[in-house]
Amino acid sequence: MSKFPVDRIRNFCIIAHIDHGKSTLADRLLEMTGAIAKTEKNKQVLDKLQVERERGITVKAQTASLFYNHEGQRYLLNLIDTPGHVDFSYEVSRSISACQGVLLIVDANQGIQAQTVANFYLAFEAQLTIIPVINKIDLKNADPERVESQIEKVFDIPREECIRISAKLGTNVDKVLQAVVNRIPPPIASTEDPFKALVFDSNFDHYRGVVANIAVFGGRVKKGDKIVSAHLGKAYEVNELGLLRPDEHPTQKLFAGQVGYIIAGMKDVKEAQIGDTLYLHEQPVEALPGFKPAKAMVFAGMYPMDQSEYTGLRSAIERLTLNDSSVAVQRDSSLALGAGWRLGFLGLLHMEVFNQRLEQEYNASVIVTAPTVPYKAVLSSAKLIKNRRAVQKNMVYIDDQRVMMKYLFPLNEIVVDFYDLLKSLSSGYASFDYENAGYQAADLIKMDILLNGRPVEELTTVVHRERAYSTGKAMCERLKDSIPRQMFEIAIQAAIGSKVIARETIKAYRKNVLAKCYGGDITRKMKLLKKQAEGKKKMRRIGNVEVPKDAFISVLKRKEK
Ligand SMILES: Nc1nc2c(ncn2[C@@H]2O[C@H](COP(=O)(O)OP(=O)(O)OP(=O)(O)O)[C@@H](O)[C@H]2O)c(=O)[nH]1
């Protein structure tokens, strides 16, 4: 594309609570600026992934460059649609770094919700211009007056700044475009400076290698230029670049202030890390600050179904984590499941989506162990004995029907099923968001599970002292259901140190198998023993006890039973 005056460029993202209508508004903006045709089929066009279409939620931020004519001038608007769910907030914070303003969408019926507040603060702290947009005014129960009061009270934004729209019907969407041009400042970037670009997203294409999404902070870059990635200091030749409209639209050059994509023969996923800076080989620049690494909240083991699939799975995980850099990856191995990884996610939904993307986009099937949360152990004999329940921090009335409450919770208590429980208790009205409040001392103990006296390493868990007995008992019962009877009696025990707190027994099997074969029936006897031997192939041996592989997973699943 030709050089575009920086003062006619606007970079903004759309942020909101889940389902408040970001993707629907993005569709309307794309239609009104002619980027996509207005058809029934063109719904949530920026939700490109199969997992997004199936679940109806955005999990990846997507970029689209739009051209908009306003008062006789042509403007270039770079829009980033972001996910609403808290588990994908890393996408929001990264998107914000490429923007000068945000559209903060609030549902006219639901009003301000937990992620509205969380996303507002991300934009506020980054000092972006915030345009409040009240969506779904076509709904029968819409109450824009009241939502405006909430916005005024909670965010201190004058109600006159709110724009009431229906993204579904297109009502007042033109006012949103005008506000983007009139209220959001252009980026501060000069085409005269040396080329400098931030890699704010990146994905791996099977044929072309790494495709990096960049925001150009200065200068210009063209096809054939030799560029360097600051992270590794390696040089590459630019093969292709262009705009995302929202599909790739190759151009000859990209200029300061623009957002687009670049392909430069990077074949390894480690070569275009998100947060990296690109510059021209002959004009080195100081690297941009990049992004703070995401802080994993939930950890789970991931293993190939069969060890022969290890290498394939490794490359699938590497490529997917290039596109989702908020996943923490560490190699791990387990006695029962072989070589694998310990992965860190921002939440359970994030973990499920990652797993689904591995299957859908990389055809990889995996075994995922039940999620756990991180603890910090203090090696000391004294530990505080204190009851670790939720502690209320503050409470604000948003209006006469809604209240915002802040609590301090142990992460372990909220990470698995708290959200579902909260939703069902409040008939779907309550919404929930969390941030890390750091480590706190708690009365936690290590609990071992023993099979015939031998500890099973992967079943060792950290539990609250008060929950030890009930958790240990449940785990023993579930193991009893999962382990088939064997030639000898098996004792399943939960123990704290040397003290056994729960026990189940699996009676010996042999006697029963062969008991039915009175004396002479040797063929029947052999058949039964053969059947037993076949079953053993899918087993892992712990001491002298054969344990089916899937027992390790089912026993850890707290909710199941
Ligand atoms: N009645 C009405 N429904 C709307 C409007 N805008 C969006 N919706 C509906 O609200 C639902 C959620 O809309 P989305 O655009 O997917 O919401 P989102 O904020 O992108 O959701 P996430 O990306 O998953 O956070 C869909 O069923 C839309 O059809 C509107 O103006 N009026």
From TrEMBL:
Predominant localisation class: mitochondrion
Protein name: GTP binding elongation factor GUF1
Species whose genome carries this gene: Haplochromis burtoni (Burton's mouthbrooder)
Physiological role: Promotes mitochondrial protein synthesis. May act as a fidelity factor of the translation reaction, by catalyzing a one-codon backward translocation of tRNAs on improperly translocated ribosomes. Binds to mitochondrial ribosomes in a GTP-dependent manner.
A Gene Ontology molecular function term of the record: mitochondrial ribosome binding
Binding site for GTP: 16-23, 81-85, 135-138
Domain Tr-type G, chain residue ranges per copy: 7-188
Stored HAMAP family: LepA
One protein family per Pfam: GTP_EFTU_D2
